[in-house]
From TrEMBL:
<dbReference type="InterPro" id="IPR044677">
    <property type="entry name" value="SLC25A3/Pic2/Mir1-like"/>
</dbReference>
<feature type="repeat" description="Solcar">
    <location>
        <begin position="76"/>
        <end position="160"/>
    </location>
</feature>
<keyword id="KW-0809">Transit peptide</keyword>
<keyword id="KW-0472">Membrane</keyword>
<dbReference type="Pfam" id="PF00153">
    <property type="entry name" value="Mito_carr"/>
</dbReference>
<keyword id="KW-0496">Mitochondrion</keyword>
<keyword id="KW-0677">Repeat</keyword>
<dbReference type="GO" id="GO:0009651">
    <property type="term" value="P:response to salt stress"/>
</dbReference>
<dbReference type="GO" id="GO:0005743">
    <property type="term" value="C:mitochondrial inner membrane"/>
</dbReference>
<keyword id="KW-0813">Transport</keyword>
<dbReference type="GO" id="GO:0005315">
    <property type="term" value="F:phosphate transmembrane transporter activity"/>
</dbReference>
<comment type="function">
    <text>Transport of phosphate groups from the cytosol to the mitochondrial matrix. Mediates salt stress tolerance through an ATP-dependent pathway and via modulation of the gibberellin metabolism.</text>
</comment>
<protein>
    <submittedName>
        <fullName>Mitochondrial substrate/solute carrier</fullName>
    </submittedName>
</protein>
<dbReference type="GO" id="GO:0003729">
    <property type="term" value="F:mRNA binding"/>
</dbReference>
<feature type="repeat" description="Solcar">
    <location>
        <begin position="173"/>
        <end position="257"/>
    </location>
</feature>
<keyword id="KW-0999">Mitochondrion inner membrane</keyword>
<dbReference type="InterPro" id="IPR018108">
    <property type="entry name" value="MCP_transmembrane"/>
</dbReference>
Amino acid sequence: MESPKNSLIPSFLYSSSSSPRSFLLDQVLNSNSNAAFEKSPSPAPRSSPTSMISRKNFLIASPTEPGKGIEMYSPAFYAACTFGGILSCGLTHMTVTPLDLVKCNMQIDPAKYKSISSGFGILLKEQGVKGFFRGWVPTLLGYSAQGACKFGFYEYFKKTYSDLAGPEYTAKYKTLIYLAGSASAEIIADIALCPFEAVKVRVQTQPGFARGMSDGFPKFIKSEGYGGLYKGLAPLWGRQIPYTMMKFASFETIVEMIYKYAIPNPKSECSKGLQLGVSFAGGYVAGVFCAIVSHPADNLVSFLNNAKGATVGDAVKKIGMVGLFTRGLPLRIVMIGTLTGAQWGLYDAFKVFVGLPTTGGVAPSSCHRSY
């Protein structure tokens, strides 16, 4: 005989499964039916499922409905990582535009912009508060494009190289896997970034050149042609590839050490909040190393994009070898450390939001399968 609970809903909304969701459904239906029989000795008139749902204002989900999690290394996984990279890089770089503006001007004109504090003072006096955000549009667009390629392709290349190496060699040479994957991703990411970076530097370091991206881009093309947009690609690779290799490899290593030595419980038993805190801390420390390694090339990029027809030799002669390593470095350490920590925090927060695990801390032997 058909049970009262089954007669109240269509057959496709229930099954004989003993899953937690079917158990909860049984509880709801049994409680409703028991209450109805207690109030009335005679069976209540049967209502259609549609009228019941509309009257109660809720929708019963099928116990056999598949989960909505993202399968690891599926197209949806790489799409999520790509979008997470857009958020992490685009938003953070746009936020630190004032710091980047002062840093670029200190690199281009150290006689005028002698220190961080004086640099902010000069900009405030000459351009007002609005001047601190000059170039924010090319910054947002450029680093969003870079972040999409950087994080999305890193996940892809790390998985690909891990599969090629196999479990044993992946565990043994995991740092090389991180370095190779991040370098491969950054080559592609910088091709996307370079045109925006060229316009950004010109807008930020030459007052009156343009207000931003909309008028700066056509002015730059008119002045130097489309080829000029990629004049700084080689120095950009020189800056960003070591930076990204350090950013990803050191982050993975630092996070692994934090879970191994500083946190008593395995990562799987840690709360998501704690995992995101580890991501930020690991990212900040990694960012300090990144700033030091990539700083000479950063000075070259700023110089070349500011001076029409300049070469790397001209930059070295003008700035000097010591200046390449030291000019604007303290500010860049603060900026890049904060930036990198925030990027990893945002990136992993988005991964958690869509149901993916945070980055790092997984046993090396399973790196090629789970992340």
